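Researcher: Sequence recovery benchmark, item below. Answer with residues only.
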């Protein structure tokens, strides 16, 4: 029997800049790695490229003036309400806020407490219980927030985000007031012109606000969906998935990834004669058990992938089958019987006991999370990931 299952390799590449041919860099780096590591390629291998280098090679950047221009175009007011900014982050949200503040005289920011949609805490959540507060019913202003939580800072970054965001707005000569609640409808007591800033529940948040009288309502996914004076843009996600590039520039989520993955797949076929799946990945979908942060601050794990990565795993649970259907077998007899169980499994195991405990998630979300954990976000220098054997199972000899 085979004794090696899934193998994941981080592939080092040259530092990727805007003027590079990304397809060639990816494919050549994979071929060089295979020669160095003495491995070969197989059908159903997976090659994944981090979204940051894809967007960089697309030149998909915007600056604060671009955001300011689009906000002014969409809102005929000097006072806007920002609802549920996610994530509460310098890297993700501060420049978006700066561009909005440049367009406005006043911002009312509705922040959920103690944390945002992906688990970024403004302060130690134990203070909620100590102060006998209910975030679902107790609406706080900034003075009340300071009374209960003093100069609370983020557990990891040490940043007082209330002060930090105030400084951002005031640097653009924009007034800011805060409302702390988990109820987005509270913003309508301050302004009817609203920008929805959460990620995963943005559609429902927009619907609720519209149903209850919001006049002008967009989301961060609606800003920079078209180019402004030659700027970058993302027609599907707007500013969602963006990251700070410089003190005045945001790198957007990639917009042309689908074309890229199929072109790389074709190039790999020419070089290796194998049918290799290709995807672009961003944040993984997992939660940190200490900081309680859900990593997925991008709108999706993978914005682009080839057809072979569609769908969800269809797996039986080995321990369930061995403890039940095959409980009377041992040794080689058990091994062979298990292989037969796998070979004869139905094409859809949803609802069957033999699949209990297998994770009902999309393949691209599982594989993308594996890639994000492998490459990290620091200085490993492996923006390309090669996964081999992911679609193998115990019956593959």
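Model:
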């Amino acid at each position: 029997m085979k004794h090696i299952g899934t193998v994941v390799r981080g592939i080092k590449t040259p530092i990727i800049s805007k003027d590079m041919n990304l397809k060639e860099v990816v494919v050549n780096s994979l071929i060089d790695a295979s020669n160095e590591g003495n491995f070969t390629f197989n059908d159903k291998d997976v090659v994944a490229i981090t979204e940051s280098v894809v967007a960089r090679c697309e030149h998909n950047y915007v600056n604060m003036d671009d955001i300011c221009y689009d906000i002014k175009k969409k809102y005929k007011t000097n006072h806007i309400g920002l609802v549920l900014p996610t994530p509460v982050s310098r890297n993700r949200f501060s420049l978006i806020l700066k561009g909005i503040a440049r367009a406005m005289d006043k911002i009312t920011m509705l922040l959920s407490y103690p944390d945002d949609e992906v688990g970024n805490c403004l302060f130690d959540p134990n203070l909620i219980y100590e102060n006998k507060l209910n975030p679902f019913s107790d609406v706080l202003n900034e003075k009340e927030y300071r009374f209960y939580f003093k100069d609370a800072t983020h557990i990891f970054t040490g940043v007082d985000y209330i002060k930090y965001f105030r400084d951002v707005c005031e640097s653009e000569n924009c007034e800011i007031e805060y409302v702390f609640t988990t109820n987005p409808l509270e913003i309508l007591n301050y302004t009817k012109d609203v920008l929805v800033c959460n990620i995963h529940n943005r559609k429902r948040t927009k619907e609720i606000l519209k149903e209850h009288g919001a006049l002008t309502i967009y989301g961060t996914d609606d800003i920079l969906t078209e180019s402004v004076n030659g700027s970058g843009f993302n027609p599907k996600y707007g500013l969602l998935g963006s990251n700070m590039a410089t003190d005045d520039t945001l790198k957007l989520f990639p917009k042309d990834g689908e074309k890229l993955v199929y072109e790389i797949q074709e190039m790999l076929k020419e070089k290796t004669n194998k049918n290799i799946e290709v995807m672009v990945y961003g944040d993984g979908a997992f939660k940190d058990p200490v900081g309680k942060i859900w990593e997925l601050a991008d709108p999706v794990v993978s914005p682009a992938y080839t057809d072979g990565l569609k769908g969800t795993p269809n797996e039986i649970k080995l321990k369930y089958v061995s403890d039940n259907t095959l409980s009377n077998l041992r040794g080689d007899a058990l091994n062979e019987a298990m292989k037969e169980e796998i070979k004869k499994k139905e094409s859809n195991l949803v609802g069957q006991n033999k699949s209990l405990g297998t994770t009902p998630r999309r393949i691209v979300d599982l594989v993308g999370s594996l890639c994000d954990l492998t490459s990290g976000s620091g200085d490993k220098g492996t923006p390309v990931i090669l996964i081999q054997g992911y679609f193998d199972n115990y019956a593959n000899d």
